[in-house]
């Protein structure tokens, strides 16, 4: 972080220009002018809609007769009653996907940061980021081919008895992967993996490799070095990565729609259906309000526990 | 035999990394392979026979290229809007101490910490209540809104790492504030601004959830087209576009890096 009070060299210009810029009221006004358009945009199109949504969730009426604010809290109970399993599925799928992303992403981030030569490092980083530029709907649809019934992947999983295992935990049923929770989790993991890898890589890259040598010199075995040195230092990356994976995954409805069956639907599917098909705006608003509150609550607790500084 | 085991043990992390990379790249390869498919039914999930029909006639599907051009228009305008607004906010946050800094930071952070569907539904509710018809303008407003935070984060990181003494030096050499900004500050901040703009473009071009809640019946972006097609039957051309985008992105990144390296070598 740069300090605004860097030692200013002796200078011949009037002191007016030499003073640190932040302290003077005229310059302060500049800051507000710079902020105004961007923040106004966010207030009008992000914050105000949130309030509007709160009010909409308490309205009753229909599209033809118009909606009126009647403080109808029952919408929340009805929505929770109808969609409680959607919430459970959303958060459990997102949690499994986040853990899988960490398990798959950490070795890759570690490889890029410590094992790859400089040239390979850039190639791998491009391969991690490049999928971003292919429409993610197309890539998600590709999983339909990869996981197709009787395909090589399902065959291999069957031969290795992985499907028996996942079947026992209720992630799959029978010889299928498509239209089971496993397919949805697999899609979620795939879609949000780069969001886990990039922050992990950023925090691992900063580690001085000499720390590893020092640990080795002190007779730490490789795994102990990892557990006591590398992992604790990379913790901010782990926290950022899990948040960037869990939050979008819990609101996602595309993977559940494209790879799952109606019994894998998540809360996002419910909001989408109520908003775009049923046109029951109060229920859609209540659902998304509950989702937002739950996520904000979880994120706050998690960040307190993990104890990270400013994330922006 | 035991040598193989030792080798595997010492390269375990790298092996896991390679597997992870394969997991990431596999779908792109499938998209590529199936762009040469000649499917028998309406859907392109099962291999039937090799054909280059889709590549020789990429716009042969009704409405697809139209949706592609709409997506490009939205992405370009959203990128310009978000980059200008976001860069201004980033400069204010990086350079000034002012009242309401914390609230401003929170305002920037929250859209990134919110599931897309929540923002999508709430903005859609606002437009409905205001009786603003859904269409190009509403999509653009939404895209600028969610891209802004990412631009701010990218530009702010860059501006914070810039040496303030360079600007002081410019002023010592009697540069006016405008000259200092245009000749020193802006070129120094350019990589951050470029990164933010690139990210905005990618996010906007690929956005589906927020677009689905805030677009009208006639404004079908490319992701919306793919979504509709996934229910009715997918033309092979979708894979052609997907692959072309992937190749263009890799070429752009590699080219940009090569240019950057060359410039460094010259300087």
From TrEMBL, chain A:
Recorded superkingdom: Bacteria
Keywords: Cell membrane, Membrane, Transmembrane, Transmembrane helix, Transport
Compositionally biased spans, kind Low complexity: 1-21
Family: Belongs to the binding-protein-dependent transport system permease family. CysTW subfamily.
Family annotation (Pfam families): BPD_transp_1 (PF00528)
GO biological process, one term: transmembrane transport
Segments passing through the bilayer: 31-52, 91-110, 122-142, 178-201, 229-249, 284-303
Taxonomic lineage of the native organism: Bacteria, Bacillati, Actinomycetota, Actinomycetes, Kitasatosporales
CDD domains tied to this protein: TM_PBP2
Membrane topology listed for this record: Multi-pass membrane protein
Protein name as annotated: ABC transporter permease
Originating species: Kitasatospora indigofera
All residue ranges annotated as the ABC transmembrane type-1 domain in the record: 87-300
Cellular location(s): Cell membrane
PROSITE patterns assigned to the protein according to its UniProt record, in alphabetical order: ABC_TM1
One Gene Ontology term, aspect cellular component: plasma membrane
InterPro entries: MetI-like (IPR000515), MetI-like_sf (IPR035906)
Region: Disordered, residue numbers: 1-23
From TrEMBL, chain B:
An example Gene Ontology CC term for this record: plasma membrane
Transmembrane segments: 12-36, 74-94, 106-128, 134-155, 184-205, 234-254
PROSITE patterns assigned to the protein according to its UniProt record, in alphabetical order: ABC_TM1
Key word Ribosomal protein present: no
Bilayer topology annotation: Multi-pass membrane protein
Domain of life according to the entry: Bacteria
Residues of the ABC transmembrane type-1 domain: 68-256
Subcellular localization(s) per the UniProt record: Cell membrane
UniProt entry tagged with the keyword Transport: yes
InterPro entries, per the entry: Bact_Polyamine_Transport, MetI-like, MetI-like_sf
Keywords: Cell membrane, Membrane, Transmembrane, Transmembrane helix, Transport
GO biological process: transmembrane transport
Location, primary (coarse class): membrane
Signal sequence extent: none
Family: Belongs to the binding-protein-dependent transport system permease family. CysTW subfamily.
Protein name: ABC transporter permease
Organism in which the protein naturally occurs: Kitasatospora indigofera
């Amino acid at each position: 972080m740069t300090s605004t009070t860097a030692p200013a060299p002796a200078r011949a210009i009037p002191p007016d220009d030499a003073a640190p810029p932040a302290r003077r009221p005229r310059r302060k006004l500049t800051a507000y002018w710079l902020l105004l358009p961007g923040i106004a945009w966010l207030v009008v199109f992000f914050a105000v809609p949130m309030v509007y949504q709160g009010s909409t969730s308490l309205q009753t009426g229909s599209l033809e007769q118009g909606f009126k604010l009647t403080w109808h809290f029952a919408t929340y109970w009805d929505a929770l009653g109808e969609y409680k399993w959607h919430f459970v599925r959303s958060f459990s799928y997102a949690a499994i996907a986040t853990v899988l992303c960490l398990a798959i992403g950490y070795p890759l981030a570690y490889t890029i940061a410590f094992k790859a030569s400089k040239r390979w490092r850039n190639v791998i980083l491009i391969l991690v980021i490049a999928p971003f530029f292919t429409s993610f709907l197309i890539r998600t649809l590709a999983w339909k081919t990869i996981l197709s019934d009787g395909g090589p992947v399902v065959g291999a999983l069957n031969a290795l008895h992985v499907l028996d295992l996942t079947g026992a935990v209720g992630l799959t049923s029978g010889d299928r992967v498509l239209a089971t929770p496993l397919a949805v989790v697999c899609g979620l993991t795939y879609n949000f993996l780069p969001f886990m890898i990039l922050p992990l890589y950023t925090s691992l890259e900063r580690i001085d490799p000499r720390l590893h040598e020092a640990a080795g010199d002190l007779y730490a075995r490789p795994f102990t070095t990892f557990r006591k040195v590398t992992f604790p230092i990379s913790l901010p990356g782990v926290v950022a990565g899990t948040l960037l994976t869990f939050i979008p995954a819990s609101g996602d409805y595309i993977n559940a729609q494209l790879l799952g069956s109606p019994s894998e639907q998540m809360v996002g599917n419910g909001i989408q259906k109520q908003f775009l098909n049923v046109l029951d705006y109060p229920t859609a608003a209540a659902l998304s309000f509950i989702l937002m509150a739950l996520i904000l609550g979880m994120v706050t607790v998690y960040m307190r526990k993990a104890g990270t500084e400013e994330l922006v | 035999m035991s040598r193989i085991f030792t080798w595997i043990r010492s390269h375990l992390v790298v092996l896991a990394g390679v597997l992870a990379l394969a997991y990431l790249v596999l779908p792109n390869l499938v998209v590529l392979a199936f762009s040469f498919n000649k499917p028998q039914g309406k859907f392109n999930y099962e291999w039937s026979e090799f054909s280059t029909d889709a590549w020789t006639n990429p716009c042969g599907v009704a409405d697809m290229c139209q949706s592609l051009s709409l997506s490009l228009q939205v992405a370009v305008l959203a990128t310009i809007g978000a980059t200008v607004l976001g860069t201004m906010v980033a400069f204010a946050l990086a350079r000034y101490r002012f009242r309401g800094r914390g609230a401003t930071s929170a305002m920037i952070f929250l859209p990134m910490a919110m599931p897309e569907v929540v923002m999508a539904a709430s903005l859609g509710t606002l437009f409905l209540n205001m009786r603003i018809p859904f269409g190009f303008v509403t999509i653009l407003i939404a895209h600028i809104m969610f891209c802004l935070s990412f631009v701010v984060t990218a530009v702010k990181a860059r501006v914070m790492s810039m040496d303030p003494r360079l600007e002081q030096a410019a002023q010592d050499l009697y540069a006016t504030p405008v000259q200092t900004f245009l000749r020193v500050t802006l070129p120094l901040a350019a990589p951050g601004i470029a990164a933010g703009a690139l990210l905005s473009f990618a996010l906007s071009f690929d956005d589906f959830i927020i677009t689905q809640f805030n677009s009208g019946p006639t404004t079908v972006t490319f992701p919306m087209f793919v979504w509709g097609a996934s229910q009715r039957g997918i033309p092979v051309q979708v894979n052609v576009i997907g692959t072309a985008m992937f190749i263009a992105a890799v070429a752009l990144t590699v080219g940009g890096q090569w240019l950057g390296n060359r410039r460094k070598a010259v300087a």
